[in-house]
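Q: Structure for this?
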Amino acid sequence: MTNLFLHADINNCFASIFRIFNPELNGVPIVVLSNNDGSIIARSQEAKDLGIKMGQPYFEARPIIEKNQVRVFSSNYPLFHDLSTRFHDTLGMFSPHQEIYSIDEGFLDIGGFYNVDLKQYGQKVKETVYKWLGLPICVGIAPTKTLAKLANRIAKKSKKAQGVLVLKEPAHIEAALKTISVGDVWGIGRKYAEKLQAFGVTTAWELSQVNDAFAKKHLTVVGLRIVKELRGVPCADLEIEPPAKKGICTSRSFGQPVTSLEELREAVTAYTTRCASKLRKQKSNCLQITVFIHTNRHKENEEQLYNCKTIQLPVPTNSTLELVHYAMIGVAAIYRPGYKFKKAGVIIDDIRPAQAVQGNIFDRIDRGKHLELMNTIDLLSKKMGSGIVKVASEGINHNWKMKQDYGTPCYTTRMEDILIVR
DNA sequence: TCTGGGGTCCTAGGACCC
DNA sequence: TCTGGGGTCCTAGGACCC
């Protein structure tokens, strides 16, 4: 059986999603901002052509944006997530062996396909996603995941490929690798690219030709796998069942500086609530919680503080109430008056399956009651929107909430959001 | 005025044990 | 000045991803 992987991803994902609902945005430059409208996290092709950079601070790009009448949008994760689910569902129609790699990328294992014209097959995937969702995608097909991603990359740039590239024959693969610079290989970041260039390895082809000991020594075993995959030797299977998370983190920058403990308590309560809900969703408990707060590191003339506190829990739990209790102890321990805090976050760690809780004779909490309450809250949140039930310490004013000046409706999901925006 | 958020894996080195 | 050998576990830090 031959090894064959298909990699599909949405072109300029977040910008393309806004275009589905606003056809007048077609052909117009678009940027999408990070949480808090801080920096640019997605651009349409037109915006890329203007020289607007990924990750660039919004205020810095503002002159170009205004001069060229670039359309600006805040992130809308409920909307992105919904379209992402539809995209992956559509891909899943093409093979039972599917990996949901990220919000806008997926792999299919098509190794068992015989007598199939692969180019045509890739085209069919691409056309189907466009027809059903209105989202433009590209497709790469190759004997390893690394090569499939690379094929996709070439498909995006090449006119001839029409958005679909199959890399199968060795000569064809070699020619393709020679056109890709080493830093554009999946898994080779900035540091490794610099290191490799210093050794005279500048293209993906040259990387595929280094010896194994060299790869292991300078890029660890992870790099060795990349090198082998570039040679067409698969080292990674699909991850069909997403593994349970080992750590869960919720953190946000504030829309304006926060100075009071009371407001920090509210924010940390909200973040802990979110962590606990993610934890219950994957049916896990945790044994450790960390709270952190810090000031704005970009303001060099202001007093800086980065403070965190980790607390070990007596018994594994996923109860919002219990976790919030410890988070409040944590935030009180690290708070210092006189600082302008910019960000806070909560990390839960030491995660294990929710069954098999090891009891503790000093445990005073009625776990049966907590469990029932959490189940009820999760059900209400699912039916009526998260936030329908809150822990009191979350407060209601939320002056710390992130800034989102360029919001859009959640077109496909919650009615009440549409009403609020109007 | 204004700079995102959430993850993974690997390695080296220290603490500790027999 | 000499100061074993082998093992495990944990953590911090570095690299990467979208």
